[in-house]
């Protein structure tokens, strides 16, 4: 089985520089040097970029997905992407919606630099190769800290712990250790735009997190900045003060969709409170299921790039509910 390893940068490829700061240094050849490979696996490495993931844009991430699709089209059986963990969930969500749910694609990274004695860099890459090459495909996944979660479910939940990713309510797809891969579940969401050509670029979509006493200032700033869509991390089950609903109405008038998520990080949003979510829904906001703010932001950018304006709400709900385009 031939596996392509696409390196983009991140801590997995970083070492301390002369100032004592972590900086991306390692090439894919250095990442792979001396790495134990699963039996029957041949690996070919490609350097896509050398960036910490906090500098990546959605279009950089789209370029990575383009390379992932290209490698599969060239006949590679699977692809591993090495990536910084800070924004890995965005690239993972994008990849997960733009490729087939059962494709052999794994994204991985590390929490400790490659020159730390207890670095997780080599272990995570070894685990990623095990998962991507396992006999029954696990699907498009994030592998870090000994577990795999679905690419469209994963989110970074710890600043420094080795086990920094969670699959949220969807849980864990598989455990991975030197014994091998132990499958636990199957992803039900993902692959929404797997069969369509990739868009050339993704539109600007902003994410606004609400705090008590918030008004419409930040939504209006996003409109002024030319955002094509806005995601709000609202309170609880999807509530916001009336001033935010006023800003949603303004966005609606300008043809800019606003999606509602919850800043709680788990559970589905529903428009059930008078003066809160019910007013947001009447103002035209789209309730984005249980997507996190960053997931909904990528999902909204994807729907805006693929759909005529009238179909954006339905497509966004479809992605959140695990339907397929
Ligand atoms: N652990 C990491 O990879 C974090 C790093 N700052 C990055 O995202 O590039």
List the helices and strands and how they pair.
Layout: E1 2-7, E2 14-16, E3 22-24, H1 28-32, E4 42-47, H2 58-73, E5 78-82, H3 88-98, E6 105-108, H4 121-133, E7 141-144, E8 147-150, E9 155-156, E10 165-166, E11 174-177, E12 180-183, E13 205-209, H5 217-224, E14 229-234, H6 242-253, E15 258-262, H7 277-282, E16 286-287, H8 293-306, H9 312-321
Describe this structure in words.
Helix content is 29%, strand content 20%. The strands form 4 sheets. The protein has an 8-stranded mixed sheet with strand order 4-1-5-6-7-8-11-12, with helices on both faces. The mean pLDDT is 97. The chain is built from 9 helices and 16 strands. Strand 5 (78-82), helix 3 (88-98) and strand 6 form a beta-alpha-beta unit. The chain is globular and about 60 Å long. With 325 residues, it is an alpha/beta fold. Helix 3 crosses helix 8 (293-306). The chain has helices at 28-32, 58-73, 88-98, 121-133, 217-224, 242-253, 277-282, 293-306, 312-321, and strands at residues 2-7, 14-16, 22-24, 42-47, 78-82, 105-108, 141-144, 147-150, 155-156, 165-166, 174-177, 180-183, 205-209, 229-234, 258-262, 286-287. It has 2 domains: 2-183, L-asparaginase, N-terminal domain (Rossmann fold, 3-Layer(aba) Sandwich); 205-321, Rossmann fold, CATH 3.40.50. It starts with a strand and ends with a helix.
